[in-house]
Amino acid sequence: MPGAKKNLLMWDETLFRDPEVFEIDYVPEQFNFRETQMRELAFQIRPGLRGGRPLNTICRGLPGTGKTTSVRKLFSEIEETTKKLLPVFINCQMDNTKFAIFSQIYRRLSGHLPPASGTSFKQVFDAVAKMMKKEEIVLLVCLDDANYLLYESEINNVLYPLLRSHEQYEGTRIGVILIISDLDVDLHKALDARVESVFRPTDIYFPPYSGEEISGILRERVAQGLYPGVLPDDMFSLVVEQTQKSGDLRVGIDLLKRSALSAEHVARKTITRDDICGAYEVSKYLHLSYSVKILKADEKLLLKAIATLSTTGKEMNAGEVFRTVKDQVEIGYTRFYEIVRKLDGMRILNLHYRDGKGRTRLLSLRYDPAKIIEYLA
Q1: Fold for domain 209-284?
Q2: How far apart are the C-alpha atoms of 48 and 216, rounded to whole Å?
Q3: How do residues 333-346 score in pLDDT, each as one tens digit?
């Protein structure tokens, strides 16, 4: 039909007004539904703007509830307001050792990382303190996904030098924000008395977004990121529905991006149900995709072995799983159990107990084992 081609995109056309809007780390100009939490955070930070030590804070809530965006938004405002309070944002999924974290602080102050070899932690810490003193800078350190420091048993090693720096280096002032996405974490149990005595954080809770809030946030992203008419109203409702099903706003944002790319790929000017349903089959594994990338080699091997065992459909007793996989993965029981607890905290598998003759530890995967194996590959 002669008129059919009118709906097709030209080779150099796009459905995206601004593709950046659909990136996971995008910080929107207009950030709604977290005004209360932002005000509380601003109150905690305020002493740092006057040269004092910012109050310590824990931002707690499920993934995709606006914790990271809230902190990044405030950090951006601090950078526009003053040079005397320096915000340092650290992703603890990537940097989860004392040396790695202080290296990132060093980089923020100096513009480059410390030498990779032959440099001790004390040398890095000394240099950080000297730069702070010279520039008369107060530090505000955000440890995003700080639950990963717990999985690696590093939380006290990191917090102790941050919080007690003034004892070793007179005049240094450092405030700490922890972002925690694992609601099962009991931080007070994990902290040493010497850390807890100086930490004394205020907890700020980020509840899951309601359906109406999810709709409002996604509608803003669509208006900013796609051209008018690309996403019909009924298809927008489907995206909101799928996002609510996943329980993670980030899945909805990724779903918008992938469904628009799908339509663009076949040169269509509007997104269809097939685009959204096809994209959801990828977007719903967003958490799994990010999580497996940051696992260590032995953690990946163990997860693959558990996923392979899981395909048999039999109940997985932790002790029996260990006996089955210990030779393939080459680990002892202590390390095996550490990894299992980490994977449980990361919401990749469930570690639960059955009472009977003693307590039996049972493992079950939260994802289709075939998908886990696919993402590990």
Answers
A1: Helicase, Ruva Protein; domain 3 (1.10.8)
A2: 33
A3: 999 999 999 999 99
